[in-house]
Amino acid sequence: MELMVNGEKVTLEGGANLSALLAQQKVENPAMVSVQINGEFVEKEQYESSPLAEGDEVDFLYFMGGGY
Amino acid sequence: MKGFSTKAIHGVRFKPDAHGSLRMPIYDTVSFEHESAKAIELAFGGKRPAHAYTRISNPTIEDFEQKMRLLSGGMAVLALSSGMAAISNLVMTLCEAGTNLVTSRHLFGNTVSLFEHSLKPWGLEVRYADMTNPAEVASLIDENTRLVFLEIITNPQMEVADIKALSAITHQKGVPLILDGTVTTPVLFRSKDFGVDVEILSSTKYISGGATSVGGVIIDNGNFDWKQAPRLAEKAKRIGPMAMIATLRMEVYRNLGACLAPHNAYLQSLGLETLGLRIERSCDNALALAQFLESAPKVKKVNYPGLATSPFNALAQSQFGGYGGGIVSFEMESREAAFRIIDGVGLIKRATNVNDNKSMIIHPASTIFCEYSPEEKLEMQVPEELIRLSVGIEDLEDLIDDLTQALETV
C-alpha cells in the first residue's frame, strides 16, 4: 500500500501497523517522536494496534532536544 | 547502570561523535546546513530530526538535555540560559492574563520579583499560601489556577514541604505541581517519584560544577496530562504528552530567546559527572557546620533541615535520603552582629550564589531581598539578623576555624 509519510510517498506491505512503519523508516529514537495518523495523535501504547490503510497520511514530529 | 554517578559518567550518548570523542564537542555555531530545500522545510516543521538554529536547538545542548533526562528519570528536558529563564518561560507557557498561580512567600527574591513586578502587570494574579499547610494550598486553587509553584528547600528560611501531600491536592484539582529543585537536584530528590509534574533547576548552582556557568533546566516528568492545562489542551490532543515541551521549544522558548550557550552546556555536562560527589561532601559539611553553629552561644538560631532540632527534619530525612542540603542560615542577636560575622570571615567568600565549591556568606535582607520593605521582609521571614551560609566542599576543619575566628569578633 502507499502512504504519505512526512509529505513523501512511502510503500509499505498491506496490513502493516504503525510500529512496522517506524521500523521501516528507521526512525531514530522512536520514543522521542510524536506520531499523527491523518492528523490524529496516536498514543505510544497503541503503535502495535494501529493499522495503516492505503492513502493514510502519517506524520512523525520531532521536538529537537531532550524529548521523551 | 543503576548509580547516579555511573549514569552521569557513562550515560548513553544520544548520538555518536563523528571522531569518537569521549566528550560531546562544543558546537559553537549558530546555523546548520541542510542538503535540500525540502530537508530544511521538514526540519522547520518538526518532521525531520535536524538542528537548524542554535537559539532553538544545538547538538551540545541536546546532549546536556539528554543527560539530564537520563539522570532525572523525566520524560523530556529543555535547557535554558538561567534558572530564572526556566521559571519565566514555564509560567508564560502555562498562564495568561486573568489566571493565577499559587505559591509561597518563601521564595528566592528574584522569583518573587518576577511574579510580583514583572508578570503582575501582564494580568497574572499571584496567590500566596503556606506550602507546609496543604489544606491552605487547596483552598486557594480555583478554576483560574494554572499552576502551584514552590521551592524544595526554601532559601533562606530552610523550610521543607510535604511534596506527596501537595501533589495529591494539585492532581485532585487538575493543576500541575511545579517545583524548583535547584538545591537538591536529582541526586537528593527524584521529583518524579514524589508526584511533581515539572521540575525546574538553576543549573548554575550544583550542576555547573563550581559556578562555572549560568544555566537552567525544565524537566517534564510526564506525570501530568496537559489536556487539563487550558493553554495546552488543544496541542495535547494533537501531539500528546510532549505538548508542554513542544510549546516551549516551538513557541515560548524560541520566541523569548533564552537559549543556553553551547559552551555552558558543555561545562554543565562536565559538572554532572562529579555532581554526586560534590553534593555529598557539601551536605556533610553543612550538617557539621549547622551543628557547630547550634552549639555556639552567640548564635541565636540555626535553620537547617538536616538538624535533628529542625521542624522539617523528618521530611528532609524521608524526602532527601538522609541529607539536608548545602545551605545553612542562622540568626545573630542583631544586624550589627550579623555584619561582623560576614566581615570577620577570611576563607569563606562574601558573595552571592549557592552550591558553589567555595563556601559563601551573605546578608539576605540587605542584598537578595533589598527591593522589599521591612514589612515584606518580615512576611518572607528574612529578618535583619539573618545570615545565609552556602557550604562548599572545602575541608571541614578549615571552615570551622574560619567561623570560629569570625564569631570571636562579635
From TrEMBL, chain A:
Q: What is the lineage of its organism?
A: Bacteria, Pseudomonadati, Pseudomonadota, Candidatus Lambdaproteobacteria
Which SUPFAM superfamilies does the UniProt entry name for this protein? MoaD/ThiS (SSF54285)
Identify one Pfam family in the record: ThiS
From the record, what ranges are coiled-coil?
Answer: none
Protein name, entry field: Thiamine biosynthesis protein ThiS
Organism field: Candidatus Lambdaproteobacteria bacterium RIFOXYD2_FULL_50_16
TrEMBL record, chain B:
A molecular function (GO) held by this record is:
O-acetylhomoserine aminocarboxypropyltransferase activity
Query: Which residues fall in a coiled-coil region?
Result: none
Q: Known InterPro entries for this protein?
A: Cys/Met-Metab_PyrdxlP-dep_enz (IPR000277), OAc-hSer/O-AcSer_sulfhydrylase (IPR006235), PyrdxlP-dep_Trfase (IPR015424), PyrdxlP-dep_Trfase_major (IPR015421), PyrdxlP-dep_Trfase_small (IPR015422)
Q: Which cofactor does it need?
A: pyridoxal 5'-phosphate
For whether the record's keyword set contains Aminoacyl-tRNA synthetase, the answer is no
**Cellular component per GO?**
cytoplasm
Chain positions found as N6-(pyridoxal phosphate)lysine: 205
Keywords (alphabetical) are: Pyridoxal phosphate, Transferase
Asked if the keyword Protein transport belongs to this entry, the reply reads: no
- Gene Ontology biological process terms, A to Z: cysteine biosynthetic process from serine; L-homocysteine biosynthetic process; transsulfuration
By sequence similarity, the record places it as follows: Belongs to the trans-sulfuration enzymes family.
Q: Would you tell me the protein name for this molecule? A: O-acetylhomoserine sulfhydrylase
The species is: Candidatus Lambdaproteobacteria bacterium RIFOXYD2_FULL_50_16
Q: What is the lineage of its organism?
A: Bacteria, Pseudomonadati, Pseudomonadota, Candidatus Lambdaproteobacteria
